[in-house]
Inverse folding.
């Protein structure tokens, strides 16, 4: 492999690595040159096998890979969480132990994202998709118009839901460009005095991402489901940020809502309590039984990020990992083509195509056999998608880049 990794490491107790020809398990540092042979995917296979517990490189778009040390902590806590004699899954959400878990998760998220005091953090259920409905239900009154910026599949779904409840105006739709760009938000024509403006920072399916927080007048609401916590954001620019947990935060189940007090106060009377942000805020996200386990794991992930340099460090790592893959695309002589325009490329979801459907199938099959899992692209874009959220290791990007180089050399 061209120079990035010199050694692979493993041990039998943590999954180990083994000679893919003989199956013999080895448990020490091994120079890669010893292993390099003619098999084009050999390097990728060896790197994949060096993952703890024989884990694969999981490129899934969500749910997705979580930090191994967090998984180990959940395992260690499973039978008896901190002397309570039970797991978090079995624990009353009204217990002292659980109250501490959710309070710590909230305060750690607040410090990670530097959330100002005039914002509430809520842990809700129903996924980001439920927010597509509760936002217009709450903040799009009759006689007002909400503006939506559509840069991909999730923004489109958000508009569809909004139209059920009120007047939703699409101020930008990248359909004509096959959703491979994002606009300059400051240059769009918004409705004067709109109820709010909604956009999606990172479109998970198409792999396009806004690169900075916009400065816009009015009420800005943002779906950050697939890039929250991957970089610092200026929360004060938004009236509301929401995100499903299952990419950068933890397992599916919890949905984080960060909402400014004045927007919260704007909510109408008479909503069913489960759809009323005020009710959730007044009850500390415990109006009903919260997604206890998901929130607990999110809390561990927040601590993991805090002790690993916070969001600035996450941003550096995410960019470095994405660069490895985009370089592999750009240096493939046109064999691989990136879906997103270069300045809109996502650091979370790298989308690319191969020359044809048959080669795509072979590539996905061969990489999967080599422990590079979940690369098949979404059916609406085709090709491949490598989702490389915060917890995804750099070694996986290097292994994929090596596999791409080998594959294009063989088939290009
Ligand atoms: C950007 C974005 N928004 C919304 C959703 C929907 O989230 P959920 O499945 O939690 O409803 C997703 C899911 O992948 C997403 O990526």
């Amino acid at each position: 492999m061209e120079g990035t990794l010199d050694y692979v490491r493993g041990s039998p107790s943590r999954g180990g690595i083994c000679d893919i020809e003989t199956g013999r398990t080895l448990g020490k540092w091994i120079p890669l040159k010893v292993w390099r042979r003619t098999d084009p995917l050999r390097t990728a296979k060896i790197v994949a096998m060096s993952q703890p517990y024989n884990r694969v490189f999981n490129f899934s778009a969500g749910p997705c890979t979580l930090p191994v040390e967090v998984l180990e902590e959940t395992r260690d806590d499973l039978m008896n969480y901190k002397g309570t004699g039970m797991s978090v899954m079995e624990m009353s959400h009204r217990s002292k132990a659980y109250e501490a878990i959710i309070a710590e998760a909230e305060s750690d998220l607040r410090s990670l994202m530097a959330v100002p005091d005039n914002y509430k953090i809520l842990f809700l259920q129903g996924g980001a998709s439920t927010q597509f409905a509760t936002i217009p239900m709450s903040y799009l009154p009759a006689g007002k118009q909400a503006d939506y910026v559509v840069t991909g599949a999730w923004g489109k779904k958000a508009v569809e839901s909004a139209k059920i409840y009120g007047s939703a105006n699409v101020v930008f739709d990248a359909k004509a460009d096959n959703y491979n760009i994002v606009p300059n938000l400051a240059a769009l024509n918004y409705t004067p005095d709109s109820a709010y403006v909604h956009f999606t920072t990172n479109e998970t399916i198409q792999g396009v991402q806004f690169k900075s927080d916009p400065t816009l007048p009015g009420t800005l609401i943002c779906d950050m489901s697939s890039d929250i916590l991957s970089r610092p954001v200026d929360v004060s620019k938004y009236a509301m940020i929401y995100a499903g947990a299952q990419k950068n935060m933890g397992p599916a189940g919890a949905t984080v809502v960060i909402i400014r007090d004045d927007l919260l106060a704007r909510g109408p009377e008479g909503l069913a309590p489960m759809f009323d942000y005020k009710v959730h805020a007044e009850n500390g996200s415990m109006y009903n039984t919260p997604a206890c386990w998901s929130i607990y794991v999110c809390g561990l992930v927040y601590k993991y990020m805090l002790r690993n340099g916070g969001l600035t460090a996450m941003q550096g790592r995410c960019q470095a990992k994405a660069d490895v893959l985009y370089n592999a695309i750009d240096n493939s002589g046109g064999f691989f083509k990136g879906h997103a325009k270069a300045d809109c490329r996502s650091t979370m979801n790298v989308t690319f195509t191969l020359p044809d459907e048959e080669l795509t199938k072979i590539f996905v099959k061969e990489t999967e056999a080599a422990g590079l899992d979940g690369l098949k692209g979404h059916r609406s874009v085709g090709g491949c998608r490598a989702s490389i959220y915060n917890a995804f290791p750099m070694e996986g990007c290097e292994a994929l880049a090596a596999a791409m180089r080998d594959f294009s050399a063989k088939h290009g």
Q: What stands out?
A: The chain has twelve helices and 18 strands. Residues 310-330 form the longest helix (21 residues). Confidence is low (pLDDT under 50) at residues 1-41.
